[in-house]
Each structure stands twice: as structure tokens, then as C-alpha cells.
């Protein structure tokens, strides 16, 4: 479990730079998503074939892995567009509502049901996320393209997380990642081709950013996060990923000149506190006390 948590933390650090890179607007959102997957594929595919680390899963898991890759590619693409059409922080808020969808999906479809601590932690983390962005910003959001794509990104990611959790219960991380990332690159490449997107003609800086996205934000980050997903609850992983908002906000302030207020700092504290609650194995004391009082009350009524 300790290794899984360390992998999750490092993975979160790797993906936290992604919103800032996308917000630079050096390439269109869809093409950026394609090259992120394509560059990762170019590295991981030869590696697993040369080292014989690719183990073909069952037909069912192959199909599910392809679906996962397609969903994840779509998630990255719509998130890219949401970031470019709004702000890095706002898009991160909307996308990271995914723990709500993951929790509901886990409750409905997985045997490993969310605990009370998960729901408490999620509520606190979401409250911290709203504070981080600001109540005014949150309340004034319009149902424009960026808003809709931000929400859609969170939903796509939730489906990806739940599906990948089931696959990783039977398949190894490297094999799953290989199928997933290659299918992402293929699906995004086909879509980009048919809409007439340009695959070249970018600046040197844009290519550097695309390489960083592919090697750091995709390959390294999601190998680590997939490893954590395999060994941890999907709900806990999804809530922990909210922590990237704190780092993304700091990086946006550092490189994009987005200001950090005291309210945002307090919001970051609540967000991290909510994430920490989801890791408690036992019921929170407040619920134990309430439960004991209810039991005593029932006993007194029964005796009377």
C-alpha cells in the first residue's frame, strides 16, 4: 500500500503541470491530445515488445482496454478545449468533479462500495475546490462550451477510472497501459484527420511542450496512477487526484500570472483535508459517538 501511495503522489505531481502547458495555446486542443498519446505510444510500444513485458489479456479485457483508451483520449481532448476556452483553474474544478461520478458509479456497479469516510472526504474536498476557485466564479459559470466540456471531461474520466479498475484486477499495468494509450492515439488521430486538423507547422517550443505532455503527463504519470489504481480503491485514487488542483493553481500563478488569494489557500487546505479523510480505514469518531448514543437510547427505551 505504501508503494501505491508514493506512486500516486508522484503521478499527481506529473499531471499537475498539464493545465499550464495546455493553457499556453501553442497547439489546438485536439491535436495536443493526439500527440500526448502518440508520443507515449511511440515509447511504450517498442519497450514492451523488446522486453517481452506485454502479456495479452483476455478478449474481454482487450476490448475493455481499447474502450478505456478511447474514453481517456476523449477525456483529454475535451479537457484541453475546456482549459483553452476558460482558465486552467476553472477547467480543473469542473473536471475534478469526477470523484462524485466515480463514487456514484462505484456504489451502483462495484462490489467495493464507497465508505462513509469517502463521501465525507469528497464533500469537504469539493467544498475546498469551490473555495479555491471562488464562490463568485463558481456561481457565475455559464453553460458555454468550456463549462460543458469541463463537466463532460469529469464524466468521461469517471467511466475510465471505474472500467480500468475492473481490468487491472486481472491484467498487469504495462499491458493495460500499452493497449489503452495506443487506442487513444489511433482514435484521436482518426478524428483529427477527418476534421482537417493540421499535424505539423508548430513552433519549436510547441514540440517541446508536446514531448513533455507525452513523456511526463501521460506515460510517467499514468503508469504510476494505474499502478496505484490496481492496489487502491478507485474512489480514493479519484479523490486524491483533486490534489492536482492545488499544484495547478500554484503553477498557474507562477507561469500564467494567475493570482493566489487567502481564500484560495484556505480552499487548498480544505481540499487536502478532504482527501486525507478518505484514507481513514475506520469510521470517524463523530459517527462512533452518535452510534453509541443511539444504542444507549434504544437500550433505555427497551428497559422502560
Quick summary of this structure?
The protein contains 15 helices and no strands. With 304 residues, it is mostly helical.
Description:
The chain has 304 residues and is mostly helical. It has one domain (2-303). Helices cover 80% and strands 0% of the residues. It is built from 15 helices and no strands. It has helices at residues 2-16, 18-23, 29-50, 59-85, 88-95, 98-109, 116-133, 135-139, 145-168, 173-194, 204-231, 234-240, 244-256, 262-277, 285-303. α1 (2-16) runs antiparallel to α11 and α6 (98-109) packs across α9. It is globular. Mean pLDDT is 81; it is low at 286-291.
SSE topology:
Layout: H1 2-16, H2 18-23, H3 29-50, H4 59-85, H5 88-95, H6 98-109, H7 116-133, H8 135-139, H9 145-168, H10 173-194, H11 204-231, H12 234-240, H13 244-256, H14 262-277, H15 285-303
Helix pairs in contact: 1-11, 1-13, 3-4, 3-10, 3-11, 4-5, 4-9, 4-10, 5-9, 5-13, 6-9, 6-12, 7-14
What percentage of residues falls in helices of 4 or more residues?
over 70%
Distance between the termini: 49 Å
Category from helices, strands and their pairing? mainly alpha
Morphology: globular
Radius of gyration: 21 Å
SSE sequence, one letter per element: HHHHHHHHHHHHHHH
Which runs of at least 5 residues are low in confidence (pLDDT < 50)?
286-291
Total of DSSP H or I helical runs spanning 4+ residues: 15
How many domains make up the 3D coordinates?
Answer: 1
**Would you tell me the overall average pLDDT?**
81
DSSP strand count: 0
What about the largest sheet? none
Indicate the proportion of strand residues: under 5%
